[in-house]
Design brief:
The chain is an all-beta fold. It has strands at residues 39-46, 52-60, 92-100. The chain has no helices and 3 strands.
Length: 101
């Protein structure tokens, strides 16, 4: 059995031609926030008075943390109340070099 993010037994379908008593946006049901750290390191070097060289290293999601998507909120679905996907990208590193003249 997959683990539920919230108690799905609290919800039932209203009768025909009736409205439910749950608000459209429930303030008690929240997904976890984004916890992502990015860093950039830049080194500027003057080659001559006219030519300048810049080296950059950029790291996205430095700690390589997994962040899960919000739980499925579609009532009646087989995955109702379950977190089934990853929300962010893994650690990405990119390097760049720029010659200015």
């Amino acid at each position: 059995m997959l683990r539920k993010y919230f108690n799905t037994a609290c919800f039932t379908a209203p009768g025909q031609f009736e409205f439910g008593n749950s608000p459209r946006v429930d303030p008690d049901l929240r997904a976890k926030g984004i916890n992502n750290f990015d860093i950039t390191v830049v080194k500027n070097t003057d080659l001559t008075e006219r030519y300048k060289l810049q080296f950059r290293a950029e790291v996205f999601n430095l700690a390589n943390r997994v962040q899960f998507s919000p739980p499925n909120t579609q009532f009646g679905a087989s995955t109702f109340g379950q977190v089934t996907a990853q929300y962010n990208n893994p650690r990405l590193i990119q390097f760049g070099m720029r010659l200015s003249f």
